[in-house]
Protein backbone atom coordinates (compact mmCIF):
# COMPACT_ATOMS: atom_id res chain seq x y z
CA UNK A 1 0.00 0.00 0.00
CA UNK A 2 1.34 3.43 -0.95
CA UNK A 3 0.88 6.16 1.62
CA UNK A 4 0.24 9.73 0.58
CA UNK A 5 3.77 10.62 1.68
CA UNK A 6 5.10 8.11 -0.81
CA UNK A 7 6.29 5.53 1.68
CA UNK A 8 5.82 1.93 0.71
CA UNK A 9 4.28 0.16 3.68
CA UNK A 10 5.65 -3.23 4.56
CA UNK A 11 3.56 -6.21 3.58
CA UNK A 12 3.64 -7.84 6.96
CA UNK A 13 1.73 -5.12 8.80
CA UNK A 14 -0.51 -6.50 11.53
CA UNK A 15 -4.22 -5.78 11.62
CA UNK A 16 -5.91 -4.34 14.70
CA UNK A 17 -9.65 -4.10 15.26
CA UNK A 18 -11.51 -1.65 17.49
CA UNK A 19 -14.98 -2.48 18.74
CA UNK A 20 -17.71 -0.01 19.66
CA UNK A 21 -20.64 -0.92 21.89
CA UNK A 22 -23.18 0.58 24.26
CA UNK A 23 -22.88 -1.20 27.61
CA UNK A 24 -25.73 -1.08 30.10
CA UNK A 25 -26.23 -2.69 33.52
CA UNK A 26 -27.14 -5.94 31.72
CA UNK A 27 -23.85 -7.85 31.87
CA UNK A 28 -25.07 -10.85 29.86
CA UNK A 29 -26.20 -8.58 27.05
CA UNK A 30 -22.90 -6.66 27.11
CA UNK A 31 -21.01 -9.95 26.89
CA UNK A 32 -23.04 -11.06 23.90
CA UNK A 33 -22.33 -7.71 22.16
CA UNK A 34 -18.61 -8.17 22.80
CA UNK A 35 -18.67 -11.76 21.60
CA UNK A 36 -20.33 -10.62 18.37
CA UNK A 37 -17.41 -8.25 17.93
CA UNK A 38 -14.84 -10.99 18.55
CA UNK A 39 -16.49 -12.98 15.77
CA UNK A 40 -16.49 -9.94 13.44
CA UNK A 41 -12.86 -9.12 14.24
CA UNK A 42 -11.78 -12.71 13.57
CA UNK A 43 -13.66 -12.68 10.25
CA UNK A 44 -11.93 -9.41 9.35
CA UNK A 45 -8.54 -11.07 9.87
CA UNK A 46 -7.56 -8.97 12.90
CA UNK A 47 -4.67 -10.09 15.13
CA UNK A 48 -6.12 -8.30 18.18
CA UNK A 49 -9.44 -6.77 19.21
CA UNK A 50 -9.59 -3.63 21.37
CA UNK A 51 -12.84 -3.08 23.29
CA UNK A 52 -13.97 0.02 25.28
CA UNK A 53 -13.63 0.99 28.91
CA UNK A 54 -16.27 -0.56 31.18
CA UNK A 55 -17.34 -3.07 28.54
CA UNK A 56 -18.70 -5.34 31.30
CA UNK A 57 -21.27 -2.77 32.48
CA UNK A 58 -22.14 0.89 32.86
CA UNK A 59 -24.15 1.37 36.03
CA UNK A 60 -26.67 4.07 36.90
CA UNK A 61 -25.13 4.76 40.31
CA UNK A 62 -22.08 4.12 42.49
CA UNK A 63 -24.20 1.68 44.51
CA UNK A 64 -25.23 -0.30 41.45
CA UNK A 65 -21.62 -0.43 40.24
CA UNK A 66 -20.59 -1.93 43.59
CA UNK A 67 -23.38 -4.47 43.44
CA UNK A 68 -22.44 -5.60 39.91
CA UNK A 69 -18.67 -5.93 40.33
CA UNK A 70 -17.09 -9.39 40.30
CA UNK A 71 -13.56 -10.69 40.56
CA UNK A 72 -12.07 -11.40 37.12
CA UNK A 73 -11.42 -15.01 38.14
CA UNK A 74 -15.14 -15.70 38.67
CA UNK A 75 -16.76 -13.09 36.39
CA UNK A 76 -18.97 -14.67 33.69
CA UNK A 77 -18.17 -11.64 31.53
CA UNK A 78 -14.41 -12.23 31.69
CA UNK A 79 -14.82 -16.00 31.37
CA UNK A 80 -17.03 -15.52 28.33
CA UNK A 81 -14.40 -13.35 26.65
CA UNK A 82 -11.67 -15.80 27.61
CA UNK A 83 -13.51 -18.59 25.85
CA UNK A 84 -14.13 -16.39 22.77
CA UNK A 85 -10.44 -15.45 22.66
CA UNK A 86 -9.51 -19.12 22.81
CA UNK A 87 -12.12 -20.16 20.24
CA UNK A 88 -10.91 -17.62 17.68
CA UNK A 89 -7.25 -17.55 18.84
CA UNK A 90 -7.72 -13.78 19.02
CA UNK A 91 -6.28 -11.68 21.87
CA UNK A 92 -8.69 -9.18 23.45
CA UNK A 93 -7.93 -5.87 25.16
CA UNK A 94 -10.94 -4.95 27.30
CA UNK A 95 -11.93 -2.47 30.00
CA UNK A 96 -13.84 -3.86 32.97
CA UNK A 97 -14.53 -3.30 36.68
CA UNK A 98 -12.90 -5.36 39.41
CA UNK A 99 -13.18 -5.21 43.19
CA UNK A 100 -10.86 -2.59 44.68
CA UNK A 101 -7.83 -3.71 46.63
CA UNK A 102 -9.12 -1.94 49.72
CA UNK A 103 -12.54 -0.80 50.85
CA UNK A 104 -15.96 -0.79 49.27
CA UNK A 105 -14.97 0.47 45.85
CA UNK A 106 -14.24 -0.89 42.40
CA UNK A 107 -11.14 -0.70 40.22
CA UNK A 108 -11.49 0.54 36.65
CA UNK A 109 -9.15 -1.84 34.85
CA UNK A 110 -7.93 -2.95 31.49
CA UNK A 111 -7.24 -6.63 30.80
CA UNK A 112 -5.19 -8.20 28.04
CA UNK A 113 -6.64 -11.63 27.36
CA UNK A 114 -4.17 -13.66 25.28
CA UNK A 115 -5.08 -15.83 22.29
CA UNK A 116 -5.03 -18.82 24.65
CA UNK A 117 -7.65 -17.15 26.84
CA UNK A 118 -5.38 -16.18 29.71
CA UNK A 119 -5.54 -12.85 31.51
CA UNK A 120 -1.95 -11.88 30.82
CA UNK A 121 -1.86 -8.16 31.67
CA UNK A 122 -3.78 -5.76 33.86
CA UNK A 123 -3.73 -1.96 34.18
CA UNK A 124 -5.73 0.04 36.73
CA UNK A 125 -6.85 3.53 35.70
CA UNK A 126 -4.73 6.20 37.38
CA UNK A 127 -6.75 9.38 36.86
CA UNK A 128 -10.38 9.51 37.92
CA UNK A 129 -13.02 11.63 36.21
CA UNK A 130 -14.37 14.02 38.86
CA UNK A 131 -15.95 16.94 37.06
CA UNK A 132 -18.70 19.45 37.51
CA UNK A 133 -19.21 21.40 34.31
CA UNK A 134 -22.00 23.99 34.03
CA UNK A 135 -24.54 22.69 31.50
CA UNK A 136 -22.26 19.72 31.06
CA UNK A 137 -21.43 16.48 32.75
CA UNK A 138 -21.33 16.19 36.53
CA UNK A 139 -19.57 12.96 37.37
CA UNK A 140 -17.71 11.79 40.46
CA UNK A 141 -15.83 8.67 39.45
CA UNK A 142 -13.88 8.63 42.71
CA UNK A 143 -17.13 8.03 44.63
CA UNK A 144 -17.04 4.41 43.54
CA UNK A 145 -13.61 3.88 42.01
CA UNK A 146 -10.19 3.36 43.57
CA UNK A 147 -7.35 4.86 41.50
CA UNK A 148 -4.46 2.66 40.41
CA UNK A 149 -0.97 3.30 41.69
CA UNK A 150 1.35 2.28 38.87
CA UNK A 151 1.83 2.28 35.12
CA UNK A 152 1.83 -1.10 33.40
CA UNK A 153 5.12 -1.45 31.49
CA UNK A 154 4.48 -1.83 27.74
CA UNK A 155 3.84 -5.46 26.79
CA UNK A 156 4.39 -7.37 23.56
CA UNK A 157 1.40 -8.31 21.44
CA UNK A 158 0.96 -9.60 17.87
CA UNK A 159 0.31 -6.00 16.73
CA UNK A 160 3.18 -4.31 18.64
CA UNK A 161 4.17 -3.22 22.13
CA UNK A 162 1.11 -1.89 23.92
CA UNK A 163 1.16 0.91 26.50
CA UNK A 164 -2.23 0.87 28.18
CA UNK A 165 -4.07 3.88 29.59
CA UNK A 166 -7.80 4.46 30.10
CA UNK A 167 -10.19 7.25 29.07
CA UNK A 168 -9.59 10.33 31.29
CA UNK A 169 -5.88 9.32 31.45
CA UNK A 170 -5.84 10.71 27.88
CA UNK A 171 -5.80 14.27 29.26
CA UNK A 172 -2.39 13.73 30.87
CA UNK A 173 0.57 13.65 28.47
CA UNK A 174 3.05 12.44 31.11
CA UNK A 175 2.01 8.76 31.29
CA UNK A 176 1.92 8.49 27.49
CA UNK A 177 5.45 9.93 27.26
CA UNK A 178 6.63 7.62 30.03
CA UNK A 179 5.18 4.57 28.24
CA UNK A 180 6.73 5.68 24.96
CA UNK A 181 10.10 5.97 26.66
CA UNK A 182 9.62 2.46 28.06
CA UNK A 183 9.11 1.08 24.55
CA UNK A 184 5.42 1.45 23.70
CA UNK A 185 4.55 1.43 19.99
CA UNK A 186 0.79 1.52 20.48
CA UNK A 187 -0.98 3.61 23.10
CA UNK A 188 -4.48 2.46 23.99
CA UNK A 189 -7.30 4.58 25.41
CA UNK A 190 -10.39 2.43 25.91
CA UNK A 191 -12.99 5.05 26.77
CA UNK A 192 -16.50 6.19 27.59
CA UNK A 193 -16.22 9.91 26.89
CA UNK A 194 -19.14 12.22 27.53
CA UNK A 195 -20.67 13.90 24.49
CA UNK A 196 -19.81 17.56 25.30
CA UNK A 197 -16.20 16.83 26.31
CA UNK A 198 -15.82 14.35 23.48
CA UNK A 199 -16.97 16.86 20.91
CA UNK A 200 -14.52 19.44 22.26
CA UNK A 201 -11.44 17.32 23.01
CA UNK A 202 -11.53 13.65 21.97
CA UNK A 203 -9.98 13.78 18.50
CA UNK A 204 -7.40 16.55 19.13
CA UNK A 205 -6.15 14.83 22.30
CA UNK A 206 -5.88 11.42 20.64
CA UNK A 207 -4.07 12.87 17.64
CA UNK A 208 -1.77 14.88 19.88
CA UNK A 209 -0.80 11.74 21.83
CA UNK A 210 -0.06 9.92 18.55
CA UNK A 211 1.98 12.81 17.15
CA UNK A 212 3.97 13.64 20.28
CA UNK A 213 4.82 10.01 21.08
CA UNK A 214 5.14 9.00 17.39
CA UNK A 215 3.03 5.96 18.18
CA UNK A 216 -0.17 4.32 17.00
CA UNK A 217 -3.16 5.25 19.14
CA UNK A 218 -5.98 2.74 19.47
CA UNK A 219 -9.07 4.15 21.15
CA UNK A 220 -12.16 1.94 21.39
CA UNK A 221 -15.09 3.82 22.85
CA UNK A 222 -18.54 3.35 24.24
CA UNK A 223 -21.24 4.94 22.08
CA UNK A 224 -24.87 5.79 22.76
CA UNK A 225 -27.32 5.94 25.65
CA UNK A 226 -26.40 3.64 28.55
CA UNK A 227 -29.23 4.72 30.87
CA UNK A 228 -31.31 7.77 31.83
CA UNK A 229 -28.23 9.71 32.94
CA UNK A 230 -25.41 8.60 30.68
CA UNK A 231 -24.65 8.93 27.00
CA UNK A 232 -21.23 8.26 25.46
CA UNK A 233 -19.78 10.04 22.46
CA UNK A 234 -18.44 7.13 20.36
CA UNK A 235 -15.98 7.97 17.55
CA UNK A 236 -13.70 5.03 18.28
CA UNK A 237 -10.56 5.48 16.22
CA UNK A 238 -7.14 4.18 15.23
CA UNK A 239 -4.49 6.83 14.52
CA UNK A 240 -1.04 6.36 13.01
CA UNK A 241 2.26 7.83 14.34
CA UNK A 242 1.93 10.77 11.93
CA UNK A 243 -1.45 11.67 13.42
CA UNK A 244 -3.60 10.40 10.57
CA UNK A 245 -6.92 8.79 11.45
CA UNK A 246 -6.80 5.35 9.81
CA UNK A 247 -10.22 4.15 10.97
CA UNK A 248 -13.15 5.77 12.74
CA UNK A 249 -16.62 4.71 13.86
CA UNK A 250 -19.67 6.95 14.24
CA UNK A 251 -20.89 8.98 17.17
CA UNK A 252 -24.02 10.32 18.84
CA UNK A 253 -25.33 13.64 20.16
CA UNK A 254 -26.32 14.48 23.77
CA UNK A 255 -29.62 12.66 23.32
CA UNK A 256 -27.91 9.50 22.15
CA UNK A 257 -29.14 10.05 18.58
CA UNK A 258 -26.86 9.26 15.65
CA UNK A 259 -25.06 12.45 14.65
CA UNK A 260 -26.18 14.35 11.62
CA UNK A 261 -29.64 12.82 11.47
CA UNK A 262 -31.43 15.85 12.97
CA UNK A 263 -34.50 15.92 15.20
CA UNK A 264 -36.42 12.67 15.35
CA UNK A 265 -33.25 10.82 14.35
CA UNK A 266 -32.26 7.28 15.11
CA UNK A 267 -31.12 6.02 18.46
CA UNK A 268 -27.37 5.39 18.18
CA UNK A 269 -25.26 2.31 18.76
CA UNK A 270 -28.06 -0.21 18.41
CA UNK A 271 -25.59 -2.49 16.69
CA UNK A 272 -22.05 -3.30 17.87
CA UNK A 273 -19.48 -2.25 15.29
CA UNK A 274 -15.82 -2.84 14.47
CA UNK A 275 -13.27 -1.03 12.34
CA UNK A 276 -9.83 -2.28 11.38
CA UNK A 277 -6.50 -0.71 10.46
CA UNK A 278 -3.01 -1.91 9.67
CA UNK A 279 -0.37 -1.36 12.32
CA UNK A 280 2.90 -1.01 10.43
CA UNK A 281 5.89 -0.93 12.74
CA UNK A 282 8.21 -0.27 9.79
CA UNK A 283 6.29 2.95 9.18
CA UNK A 284 6.49 3.79 12.89
CA UNK A 285 10.28 3.39 12.81
CA UNK A 286 10.45 5.60 9.75
CA UNK A 287 8.49 8.40 11.46
CA UNK A 288 10.70 8.17 14.55
CA UNK A 289 13.91 8.05 12.49
CA UNK A 290 13.03 10.96 10.21
CA UNK A 291 12.02 13.33 12.99
CA UNK A 292 13.87 12.46 16.18
CA UNK A 293 12.22 14.12 19.17
CA UNK A 294 15.28 14.62 21.29
CA UNK A 295 14.45 15.89 24.73
CA UNK A 296 16.24 18.87 26.31
CA UNK A 297 16.46 17.22 29.70
CA UNK A 298 19.27 19.63 30.55
CA UNK A 299 16.55 22.30 30.59
CA UNK A 300 13.41 20.49 31.87
CA UNK A 301 12.95 17.19 33.69
CA UNK A 302 12.55 13.92 31.83
CA UNK A 303 9.16 12.29 32.21
O1 LIG B 1 -18.45 4.71 34.78
C1 LIG B 1 -17.97 3.63 34.40
O2 LIG B 1 -18.35 2.53 34.79
C2 LIG B 1 -16.89 3.68 33.37
N1 LIG B 1 -16.10 4.84 33.50
C3 LIG B 1 -16.29 5.96 32.82
O3 LIG B 1 -17.20 6.08 32.03
C4 LIG B 1 -15.31 7.07 33.08
C5 LIG B 1 -15.52 7.62 34.47
S1 LIG B 1 -17.11 8.32 34.72
N2 LIG B 1 -15.43 8.09 32.08
C6 LIG B 1 -14.46 8.94 31.79
O4 LIG B 1 -13.34 8.88 32.32
C7 LIG B 1 -14.82 9.99 30.75
C8 LIG B 1 -13.75 11.03 30.54
C9 LIG B 1 -14.25 12.14 29.71
O5 LIG B 1 -15.35 12.16 29.18
C10 LIG B 1 -13.36 13.31 29.51
O6 LIG B 1 -12.17 13.28 29.91
O7 LIG B 1 -13.83 14.29 28.93
Automatic annotation (TrEMBL):
CN hydrolase domain mapped to chain residues: 14-281
GO molecular function, one term: deaminated glutathione amidase activity
Keyword Amino-acid biosynthesis: no
GO biological process: amide catabolic process
Domain of life of the native organism: Eukaryota
Keyword flag Iron-sulfur: no
Keyword annotations of the record: Hydrolase
CDD domains: nit
Gene3D superfamilies, per database record: Carbon-nitrogen hydrolase
Protein name (database record): CN hydrolase domain-containing protein
The organism of origin for this protein: Coniosporium apollinis (strain CBS 100218)
Amino acid sequence: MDNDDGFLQSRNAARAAIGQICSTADIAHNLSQCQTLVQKAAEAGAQALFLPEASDYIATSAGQSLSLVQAATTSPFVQGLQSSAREHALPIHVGIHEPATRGAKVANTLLWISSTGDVAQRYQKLHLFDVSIANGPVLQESASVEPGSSLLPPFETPVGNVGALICFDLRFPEPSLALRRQGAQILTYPSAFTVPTGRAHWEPLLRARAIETQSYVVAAAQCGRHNEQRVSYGHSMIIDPWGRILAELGGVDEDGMVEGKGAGGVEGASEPLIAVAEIDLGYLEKVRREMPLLRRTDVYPEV
